Amino acid sequence: xxxxxxxxxxxxxxxxxxxxxxxxxxxxxxxxxxxxxxxxxxxxxxxxxxxxxxxxxxxxxxxxxxxxxxxxxxxxxxxxxxxxxxxxxxxxxxxxxxxxxxxxxxxxxxxxxxxxxxxxxxxxxxxxxxxxxxxxxxxxxxxxxxxxxxxxxxxxxxxxxxxxxxxxxxxxxxxxxxxxxxxxxxxxxxxxxxxxxxxxxxxxxxxxxxxxxxxxxxxxxxxxxxxxxxxxxxxxxxxxxxxxxxxxxxxxxxxxxxxxxxxxxxxxxxxxxxxxxxxxxxxxxxxxxxxxxxxxxxxxxxxxxxxxxxxxxxxxxxxxxxxxxxxxxxxxxxxxxxxxxxxxxxxxxxxxxxx
Length: 355
Description:
Elements: H1 2-19, H2 21-28, E1 33-38, E2 40-41, E3 60-61, H3 63-75, E4 79-81, H4 83-92, E5 99-106, H5 109-121, E6 126-130, H6 132-135, H7 142-152, E7 155-160, E8 163-168, H8 172-187, H9 191-204, H10 209-216, H11 220-227, E9 232-236, H12 249-267, E10 273-275, H13 286-294, E11 299-305, E12 319-323, H14 331-339, H15 341-346
Parallel strand pairs: 1-5, 1-12, 2-3, 4-5, 5-6, 6-9, 10-11, 11-12
Antiparallel strand pairs: 7-8
Helix pairs in contact: 3-5, 7-8, 7-9, 12-13
């Protein structure tokens, strides 16, 4: 299913690209800039989801591709700016030149090892949105736990919607099909049930969830070293990476303020910017935007797809981003994205998607 969707989406993108329609649309819908969204930067991240079981492959790009993207943006005369500078330009309505800002979610060790040197090479600012439980090595990275359980077993059992279900995971195709069914069922369940189900799965299949997190995460010392670099901004991304929409207002507010306060204790200053976990239309909406403003962040980013326009001045807590997707590691896609054409079509010719 994922492969079919990816192929169909790529076909649509390439139709836009090779017909040149994106150039026409870019002239009609001129943007102010873009904020990029990354997770993992890994030299081995080929993004191949067609020929092997790699369901989270879209979350990782290579450091070589990141280097290529930044070089492309420089050649195309985009200003490389921090998220803070991007927000300042949005507030001021400054359209004298187009900008590009980079943000990385969660706080993984590969950000420190592989992304930071690339950004330094280009003197390019970037923001790391930190989930504090990840840095503490105790977060439930449930999407990775699920991937490991499916990868390492030929058959798994898991409780979904109060029923014990058995899945054949003996082949790559069966693993993909099982992932699709389990992942989206879990995404549709409430936060407590999701984490309980995954904890049971991890226990049954002998997956040490804390060890997995510690293996992947930066330390607080890494975060402090990053923060000492003028190119780096540290932002808040909750305590435990929950779907905020599933929480009570009080719990959602706690996730925002507790992560902000913990980061402040570690680096000596309050983070000014916030990133919603998952961050799409189904997981963060107007209530969450209002909460982020009420607790004192200057702005917040989503994973809603889109470019930045002057109209975002009135929607600083619902800023869209462009995902650097591991399955699309070719500059032609970046060229297409920066025209804004795919996102104008996706958002039905609306510049702002903040409802």
